[in-house]
Amino acid sequence: MTEGSAPVERGAREQGEANGVTRRRNEREILAAAERVFARYGYRGASLQAIAEQAGLPKSNVLYYMGSKRGLYVRLLERMMERWNALLDDISVEDDPAEVLEAFIRSKMQLSRRHPEGSRLFAAEILGGAPFLQEYLRGELRDWVQARARVFEQWAERGLMDPVDPVWLIFLIWSATQHYADFEAQVLGITGRDELSDADVEEITTFLTRVILKGCGVRSRDAAPAR
Amino acid sequence: MTEGSAPVERGAREQGEANGVTRRRNEREILAAAERVFARYGYRGASLQAIAEQAGLPKSNVLYYMGSKRGLYVRLLERMMERWNALLDDISVEDDPAEVLEAFIRSKMQLSRRHPEGSRLFAAEILGGAPFLQEYLRGELRDWVQARARVFEQWAERGLMDPVDPVWLIFLIWSATQHYADFEAQVLGITGRDELSDADVEEITTFLTRVILKGCGVRSRDAAPAR
DNA sequence: TCACTTCTTGACCGTTCGGTCAGGATAATC
DNA sequence: GATTATCCTGACCGAACGGTCAAGAAGTGA
């Protein structure tokens, strides 16, 4: 229970182990543990002691690698923003609205699925007033949203979809997909599942795509009545 | 800055002040302050000191009224569940799907709007794995969802709406409405607003109602093309 | 083998945490 | 006015917090 009682016992790393392997493994372990702990307890509620225990290292070692709690947290946020940016490719008026929106919903859903802890970390940051991300929200992300919004509007002008407010539409897609990571505990409790299977996620993705595309009157090539 | 330096100075309560008025006012003040602080920092991250300062009372007084941090937190959760339950009236197959769904979206949206701190408190609790609410989720709330789900299915059988999965539909409505409380910082940052006006909220409500009802193929009496 | 860098960690620091408590202030009852 | 019950709060407690540091262990290149 107390700090000294756990004998640490990192399994591998008996002897030797070439150049920087230990360092990379430890860093990876610390980042993964920290993501879990920060996601669950928020920035203030998380403790370096808890992170260190999850990573199987003494607290001092975590600080040796990461410098400070704040630095560790910022590094995690930046990693999550990179993952986010990776799926934010540009679109143009020439693209097919149905394809773009479906790809949007699907990739966002997969991000929540592949990195649930990171998603929750991000959610906790926003929930607390986004003290570290305000600049990003008001700058980079805002520009990205407005660029997309303009394309949506042009699609509407061309009669490819209903003239809905594009910003509210983006928020709708974000919230609906984010929900399955952030509110996982609620989803599992209510559905009585232990976890969401790949099949469940596929079903939800299909559901969201159908409802949202139909709801916005998106004209799709392979249009078919729902189900 | 330090504990002793703030001279407390609760304005009123000079002399007398009939039976229990002070008590009620202090309790209200503490609950409001605690809701803000817990919502922002989560259960672990919140400190009684911060709550006391927000309430304009010494920390000891907060503990005098509330007994413990845990008790205070549970009480806030229960208050939020009551507000939640207040808008969960029963529905039947005989009701009009369009009316029910719109009322559902609207009341949920108003709950997020009227009690943003409570909504965020709830979100933080779920985000952290719902340690205090697991029982509620797996019991009361699950039953409520399944009862509604059955009605949705019957509507679909009668051809009043598409045969979409009713549970995913409920989650969609929850997430889309909850978003405007929980991710307020993001919404404001991206839209460049200082706050959401009543008109904004009305616009969003209309948008969500239109997209979701149309997306589920709900047959409404006063059906009109979107916008 | 030896010098040198990097890694590892227990001990420790000042601060803040949730919670207790004694005892003074105030209000209610007779 | 005396008695009693309730309210209020500064001082204090042990534990846990983020962070520092010195000193030893382990790896590296000559």
What does the model show?
Chains A, B: Pfam families: TetR_C_3, TetR_N. In chain A, helix 1 packs antiparallel against helix 2, helix 1 (21-45) packs across helix 4 (69-86) and helix 5 packs parallel to helix 8. Chain A has 2 domains: 3-73, Arc Repressor Mutant, subunit A; 87-215, Tetracycline Repressor, domain 2. In chain A, 69% of the residues lie in helices and 0% in strands. With 227 residues, the first copy, chain A, is an all-alpha fold. The longest helix of chain A is centred in the N-terminal third of the chain and has 25 residues, at 21-45. Chain A is elongated and about 60 Å long. The interface between A and B is large, with 61 and 61 residues. Chain B binds a DNA duplex (30 and 30 nucleotides) through residues 3-4, 8, 16, 19, 22-23, 47-49, 57-61, 63-64, 68-70.
